[in-house]
Design goal:
CATH architecture: 2-Layer Sandwich
CATH topology: D-amino Acid Aminotransferase, Chain A, domain 1
Largest sheet: 7 strands, antiparallel
Number of helices: 10
CATH class: Alpha Beta
Distance between the termini: 36 Å
Oligomer: single chain
Radius of gyration: 18 Å
Shape: globular
Order of helices and strands: EHHEHEHEHHEEEEHEEHEEHHEE
């Protein structure tokens, strides 16, 4: 089986390239381990053109890219081969952080309330990770918006959703998404309020893990996400707040892959055919950085 892995940052975004390279390496190694031949775009070339060139000769494909580009590139992929990631329609919704929050709030899901003044988190409407995110009482620039700052513990939940659209009659199962791991995020604030993501650790135990999973499952159902999805949450003594939805592989995949007995490639592939397992087996503990380094402790 030929697999197209189209990762954007390695060739086109130096700031995100280390994270992109780490994710691409993990996925390439995993797909190779299960007997697939992996095709990747030539570095320095136009990614959309490379998807159009390589896609027809591949059986399946997956795109990893910043949110503002992911919709278009995934649609390019869907036009030429079978997409095993999230569908382009749901990606388009998730790419608009403001609209995503409004949709989730309308379904009773706790999200940070919007704020136009005072000390608040300011972020891009269509941003990627912590890029450009800051805690400030200054004005939001064009293409940005403000949200309340929620002071709590930062987590991400990594899941794989089954088929929702595209081939529903063939592969829809109605099962809840597969939980891969709960990850603790290393989020830091500079003196000027700039927010930085430095990686995290996985898997972590938390007394409210089931609540977090139930909430994440609801988010995926509301937004129609499928494939690998990362949901960022802030947990306080009385709230679990969804702060971001990433409809694509996220950096935590490098730590999860180090701990997981199963091959992440097999899980993503199987889920796209309605054959995801009910659970995965994690051994040990991993810390990982935003630069792609992983330290694994088997004990």
């Amino acid at each position: 089986m030929n697999i197209l892995l189209a990762e954007y940052a390695v060739s086109h975004d130096p700031a995100l390239a280390p994270e992109g390279r780490a994710m691409l390496d993990v996925l390439t190694r995993s797909f190779t381990n299960i007997g697939c031949t992996v095709q990747t775009p030539a570095q320095g070339t136009d990614l959309a053109a490379e998807i159009a060139r390589l896609g027809p000769s591949c059986d399946e494909g997956l795109v990893i890219a910043p949110d503002h580009l992911l919709t278009r590139l995934t649609k390019n992929l869907e036009d030429v081969t079978r997409n095993i990631g999230c569908n382009s329609f749901s990606i388009a919704v998730c790419a608009n952080k403001r609209r995503t929050g409004q949709i989730l709030q309308s379904h009773g899901i706790d999200v940070p309330k919007e704020m136009t003044s005072g000390k608040r988190i300011v972020k891009q409407v269509s941003g990627c990770g912590a890029v450009g995110v800051r805690l400030t009482d200054g004005p939001a620039a064009n293409g940005e918006f403000g949200q309340e700052y929620v002071d709590g513990e930062h987590f991400s939940m990594s899941l794989v959703g089954g088929r929702v659209v595209g081939e529903v009659c063939l592969y829809y199962t109605g099962k809840n998404p597969l939980l891969l791991a709960l990850n603790r995020q290393d989020i830091r604030f500079d003196d000027d309020g700039s927010v930085h993501y430095h990686g995290g650790e996985t898997p972590v135990i938390h007394p409210r893990k089931q609540e977090m999973y139930d909430l994440a499952s609801q988010v995926i159902a509301v937004l129609g996400c499928q494939g690998y999805v990362g949901i960022d949450m802030v947990v306080t003594p009385d709230r679990i707040v969804v702060v971001d939805v990433n409809p694509r592989p996220t950096t935590s995949i490098i730590g999860i892959a180090a701990c997981m007995e199963e091959e992440i490639a097999q899980i993503i592939l199987d889920a796209s055919y309605g054959k995801a397992p009910d659970s995965v087996h994690l051994t040990g503990h991993a810390t990982f950085s935003s630069e792609g380094q992983v330290v694994y402790d088997r004990s």
